[in-house]
Structure of Pyrimidine-nucleoside phosphorylase:
Amino acid sequence: MAFRMVDLIEKKRNGLELSKEEISFIIKGYTDGTIPDYQMSAFSMAVFFQDMTAAERAELTMAMVHSGDVIDLSAIEGIKVDKHSTGGVGDTTTLVLGPLVASVGVPVAKMSGRGLGHTGGTIDKLESVKGFHVEIEKEEFIDLVNKNKLAVIGQSGNLTPADKKLYALRDVTATVNSIPLIASSIMSKKIAAGADAICLDVKTGAGAFMKTLDASRELAEAMVQIGNNVGRKTMAVISDMSQPLGYAIGNALEVKEAIDTLKGHGPEDLTELCLTLGSHMVYLAGKAESTDRAREMLQEVIDNGKALETFKIFLSSQGGDASVVDQTDLLPKAKFITELPAKESGYVAEITADSIGTAAMLLGAGRATKDSEIDLAVGLVLRKKIGDKVEAGESLVTIYSNTEEVDDVIKKLDENIKLSPNEVKAPTLIYEIITE
Ligand code: URA
Ligand code: CA
């Protein structure tokens, strides 16, 4: 059916609900260029002020899913559960969760990108392992998941072009920060990538996209509702990103941290978040009758070494040198190591996550633009987390760099790690779990 875009903008501007047909018309027209940017800008602003109903959000998500290719993973046995994090600093969960849940039989068919950010994406991190590559054919990818329960492939094809175009438009029209638009954007990408069920890790705090618990909860609830309304079982964890997760921020450094965690001696917060997200993934995949039972199963495969073994098989199946798992000093190494000592004794009160991420980026761990080179060896390792006691002179952070001159990094860290003379409580790691 043909509509006039101007009428649909007006309808939304007046706070009325759009039909499925009207929403498909908008997304099709915007994708093929028959609806111009200026009308889509006005529409996005109308959504920003008038919001969308649950039905509209679900229709918008599915219209964006169908704007491009939809990955068919039906040749993979079992329920494909995907995990998505709304971004953070030093978030190593994907590297741990893949082998962890694969070890109890959950198929993990991960399509991943490089992207921008403080550190590289999952693929960049994995490329710290010599020989590892994600340039595999789709058939091989599916065979590997069926055989090993875990494989990673680079992003290919034309997934959610409507979202790509709309996200770029929102970026320059002050309409990024709209719950229905963010939620449909994220969910459309997961669904187009073939997920049957989705576990969301919505971060909250200084290093997160959503800085307050209320805003994070609103986004989490919106995404869970969309997922469940379009037939993808979806749950969300709201987790802390006031300080970086774990200790390591950097590509090879995070691979080592993931290996430590799979061996059962990773950082406490990273381990706990992985067990929580992992147990929900296992439960949604139908591999355990409860999340409590799922958690026991995951603890078991850490304790008996199976999770580590799965990681090795995964790496070598995609050309990687799996001996790094037992000898982590084979990972890329930075030339210079500098400690940042505490100037006074006290308790760590703040380690502002986004600024610590910026410091890692100054070292070259991340990409500022699409074409920047990434240095896999460099990064930061926190020696203390919020709430820890420190003595004057004790190291707060170890800086791994490939240049001798790290004054700007030290300045950034100095400004963003704050000590208090009084005891400080460690922040809550997991605020809420939203299942419907
Ligand atoms: N991340 C996305 O993928 N989409 C948004 O709209 C915001 C953050
Ligand atoms: Ca980390």
